[in-house]
Each structure stands twice: as C-alpha cells, then as structure tokens.
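ugh finaly. both done.
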Amino acid sequence: MSDQSAATRTAPDQPASEPVSLARRFVALLIDWVLCLLISSIFGDPRRDSWIPLVVLVVEYAFFIGLFAQTPGMFVRSIRCVSVTTGGPIGVPRAALRGILLCLVIPAVIMDGERRGLHDRLTGSVIVDAPRQPRATG
C-alpha cells in the first residue's frame, strides 16, 4: 500500500482530495432513507413494520454501491463509495455488508481521522468526491 492515506485516494487515475465532509455524507444518507421509506411503503407500513425500510436500504446499497459505487443520494451530493485498494466499485457482497453495518448505526459513528467509519474499514471502502463531468454542448 502506498503512503497516500485511504481517505484522500479517489481512483488510480484521479488526483487525491480531502476527505468528504460528514454533512455531505449525512445528506446523501437522508435522501437514501427517504427513498427507502417511500419504496418500503409498497411492501407494508414502515411505521408498523420498521424492518422493511432497513431491508430496502441494504438492497439499495448492495445494488447501487456494489455495481455503480453510488446510491441516488450519493449521486445528488456528488460522492462515491469505492474500494480503498482499487478505486472501483466494491461489489455487491461488500456493499450489502456495508448496508447491514450502517443499519446497526454504531459502526457508522465510530470514525477515524480520515472520516472512515467502522463500516467503511470493515468493507474496505472509502467515500470520495465524484465530480460531475461537464455536459457536452452542440
């Protein structure tokens, strides 16, 4: 592993950046949570069956982070969840584990100096900037 810290790594072909702020991460999670509540209402009453939104969140994380490195909330906030070693998507199993750990809350609030939560460390992931490419005109 190089001497470059995990939180400042983006992808092998991208320059290093500062760790993503907790505010951006929280807003992305809030957007994803609202989507999970809306989707879970299709399957039952989220106020009565509180486990349904959690299952939807884990499935959302497994699919979106595992395959695309971004949930809809992360897309809105221009951040990505990538492998700390490759800079690419972490894959469905690790993304599902990350979602399960996030549902437990405690791993997410135990953070290090690089703003990586325990759920990030256990799944070998890091949250990085995802700058949008300018749209081509013409």
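ok and the 2nd:
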Amino acid sequence: MSQHPSTPPPFRPQDHPQTTTVLILGILGLAACGVLGPFAWSMGNKALREIDASNGQLGGRDTVIVGRILGMIATIILGVAVVSIVIVFGFAIYSASV
C-alpha cells in the first residue's frame, strides 16, 4: 500500500479581536438596551475596515456584519423611540398650557 501525503487543513484566519464584542453589543442593543446599538454599529464599521485591510489575515467578517446590522436596527428603534417620546411630551405640554 502506498501512503498518500495528507493535505494540510485549510487556512482559517484568526478572528478580529472585537468580533465577539460587536456581536454581543448588537444583541444587547436590540434585546435589552438600545443605547448600545450605536456602539455596535460604530465598532462594527471599524472592525470591518480592519478586516478588509488585513488581506485575509483577520477573520470573523460574517460575525461582525451580523453584530453591525443588529446595532443598526437597535439604533433605528432607539431613534424612533426618542422621537416618539419627544412628540408625546410635546403634546402633553401643549395640552396642559391650553
């Protein structure tokens, strides 16, 4: 029997150091504390730029994208909530003065 040389496993780059942080901030921003959404969005943008600039040396791009999108959604919901509160209080103050 002849032995076949084993092929090395495919190269998997190390994940960006902030991959998990961006994902957790995105999840928490959406589920519990909307204020974290903008941080996930901002950190996700920065991590994606660094991953793209690393020429394949950093991985975790898909995870960062998920965290970033969750951060975007949380930020939009936060913005809608703030505008809604301002409108409600504005009407309440206007109604009380009339």
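summary for the 2nd one i guess: The chain has a mean pLDDT of 92.
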